[in-house]
Design goal:
The chain is built from 14 helices and 10 strands. By secondary structure, the chain is an alpha+beta fold. A 4-stranded mixed β-sheet has the order 1-4-5-8. It has a 4-stranded antiparallel β-sheet with strand order 2-3-7-6, with no helix packed on it. It has a two-stranded antiparallel ribbon with strand order 9-10. Strand 9 and strand 10 form a beta hairpin. Helix 3 packs across helix 7 and helix 3 packs antiparallel against helix 8. The structure holds flavin-adenine dinucleotide.
Length: 426
């Protein structure tokens, strides 16, 4: 029977290595040299390269890419198990060559790029010699792509892009920008004349593209294919976020439990107070449910496709945002005043939790998608009553059993007794 929740021992060995490596190597480097991966100091870069070489030697570099796209081809389920560890350490995804927004952009390049485009952009991005950003959302409203206006006009052997984008994460420091236009996805080097990065916001940039000229071969995928490419990018991105969110929830949960056992109030350790126990119990169950849901969705993607799993991916997306909000709140609350400071990861985790319900599509849009898709499997009932209306079901059941009752008067008497009882209750 194929219903197995265990991890094969060989892959478990990899997971154990990743866990140890992140705890013993990645995290200490991060505390002493924050943002080491983007550092321009040659000595810090050398430390990063040393660790990344170990990742590559384990065959764990760019783990999000399928084999045919140039990665190890672990598939989404194994990736989920790996991300459950990486998500606990802020710099780990980059240390493994698997951090957003580059992952999604590389996925698009790997899937839709020409050989030349792969050589020019994918190869250096895989080697982290080039960084990218994704310019899709527009200031007039991000939840509805039909409102987007940024457009590329063909002029001889160039495309001329005009438009305005909002919240392009890391746009300011990217070498190339993947710009979603109404008529295609374009790769724009950040230093191209006409790319005007506005002073605010600082990390998620507002960019005006004014008469930006790029050669014809900077169109990625087919003309008018931007929505298909965006779906490919965002589908994978959402499940990867969810996998890393499990790690964040577990971190909050570990902190909550440790603290609950370490403090006293009103004559007992706080873990013995029932309202604290309720928070621990609810958080435990919420994380277990989220984890199963995420891993099952990953498994479905592996066995079908991202497209066929889109309802569950959307449901996972808003569920993870909710669970992160609840669990990080519970943990922060149990840590009391300390939880409200920036001396532990909790305050930032809780403050950041609402963004999970906005980035990669707001909760409402995903919930509408889920409801619409789920409802396709249902039909309205006929007449006044729902299918599960008891009197109608009893009547139908009686019709079905009538031949049996006719052949056995004793049974008929018992059945009549029940019928009388139910009729009397009405
Ligand atoms: C941390 C972070 C990183 C991001 N990075 C990028 C990036 O790199 N590149 C990029 O292009 N974009 C990025 N975004 C933008 C993101 O894609 C948009 O924020 C998102 O699509 C929502 O668009 P909006 O912010 O314009 O909100 P709006 O579309 O204005 O929505 C605001 C609110 O309106 C309500 N609403 C909207 N639509 C509906 C609906 N159909 N039904 C019911 N209620 C609705 C909801 O309450 C919603 O929260 C990022 C966002 C965040 C938070």
């Amino acid at each position: 029977m194929a219903w197995d929740f265990s991890t094969d021992p060989e892959f478990q060995g990899k997971l154990d290595w990743v866990e140890r490596f992140c705890r013993e190597e990645v995290e200490p480097l991060e505390y002493v040299f924050p943002y080491a991966i983007r550092s321009r100091e040659p000595k810090v870069r050398a430390l990063v390269r040393g660790l990344q070489d170990q990742v590559k030697a384990q065959g764990l570099w760019a783990i999000f890419l399928d084999e045919e796209l140039g990665g190890p081809g672990y598939g989404q389920l194994k990736l989920g198990l790996l991300n459950e560890i990486l998500g606990r350490y802020p710099s780990a995804p980059q240390m493994f060559g698997a951090a957003a927004p580059d992952t999604g952009n590389m996925e698009m390049l790997a899937a839709y790029g020409t050989e030349e485009q792969k050589q020019r952009w994918l190869k250096p991005m895989l080697a982290q010699e080039m960084w990218s950003a994704y310019s899709m959302t527009e200031p007039q409203g991000g939840s509805d792509p039909n409102l987007f206006k940024t457009h590329a006009m063909r002029d001889g052997d160039e495309w001329v892009i005009n438009g305005e984008k909002w919240f392009t994460s890391a746009g300011r420091v990217a070498d190339i920008l993947f710009v979603m236009c109404t008529n295609g996805m374009f790769v724009v080097p950040r230093k191209t004349p006409g790319v005007e990065i506005q002073p605010v916001p600082r990390n998620h940039n507002h960019i005006i593209y004014r008469d930006v000229r790029v050669p014809l071969d900077h169109l990625l995928g087919p003309e008018d294919g931007a929505k298909v490419l965006a779906q490919r990018r965002l589908g994978g991105g959402r499940i990867h976020h969810a996998m890393r969110t499990i790690a964040q929830c577990k971190l909050a949960f570990d902190m909550m439990c440790e603290r609950a056992l370490s403090r006293q109030s009103h004559g007992k350790i706080i873990a013995e107070h029932q309202m604290v126990q309720e928070k621990i119990a609810d958080s435990y169950a919420a994380i277990r449910m989220l984890r199963l849901f995420v891993l099952e969705t990953a498994w479905k993607i592996d066995n079908t496709s991202t497209q066929e799993t889109r309802t569950d991916i959307a449901a996972v997306k808003y569920t993870m945002a909710r669970v992160l909000r609840e669990v990080s709140f519970n943990a922060l609350h149990i840590l009391g005043s300390l939880g409200t400071t920036d001396l532990t990861p909790l305050q930032a985790m809780y403050a950041g939790a609402p963004t999970m319900g906005i980035a990669d599509g707001v909760d409402e849009v995903h919930k509408s998608t889920v409801a619409r898709n789920v409802l396709k499997g249902y039909r309205p009932h006929e007449g006044y009553w729902p299918t599960e209306y008891f009197p109608a079901k009893r009547e139908k059941a009686r019709e079905k059993l009538e031949p049996l009752l006719q052949s056995d008067p004793e049974l008929r008497t018992i059945a009549d007794g029940y019928a009388k009882y139910f009729a009397g209750r009405r």
